[in-house]
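Reading a protein record of the kind used here takes only a little practice. The record below shows the convention in full:
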Amino acid sequence: MQVTFDGPKNARVTVMLAHGAGAPMDSASLTAIAEALGGAGVRVARFEFGYMAGRRTGDGRKPPPRAETLLTEYVAAVNALSANGALIIGGKSMGGRVASMVADELFASDRIRGLLCLGYPFHPPAKPEQVRTKHLAELRTPTLIVQGTRDPFGTKEDVSGYRLSSGIDVLWLDDGDHDLKPRKSISGLSAADHLKTMAEAVSTWAGRITGQSIR
């Protein structure tokens, strides 16, 4: 398993992130997120699922599999990771969804301390009736979801009607899209502004749930 690291090597908290359905672990969006988190004192480990890694080796553009089929692969990635200190798992879009489906098992066995979802795919775009939230209502793992208010996979208005576990915190980024980017001409904010807000919030939240000083 190939892993890309960002952030200080001696960090007390490591966040393991999987990519979204259609973009690799070194996409511009996930790279910017990882670098921002690293700058906030968190160690970030990015990895790829087999279907995405296969696209790099000439196996063709395989379509993403159903998220449910990637659960054992995510757990195997956790098992293979050598991380110092506390471990938080998560990912961008589909990667975060997969992590959310294995989180309670890993949390119950004391292997992780939390879950971080970046742009959670609450439903497919333009299909708000196809919700992916059933397991989130009973989730026991401390969780932070970072979501843009105009994310087509789940707007602030959409999510306000869902039943979510009391252990889930949601950080809303004003006018952010699925990559957390705002329209500067409308919001007056930039992507860099949102990345900074996200990184600082994750650092504070991670410190709270792990009892560790991030910086």
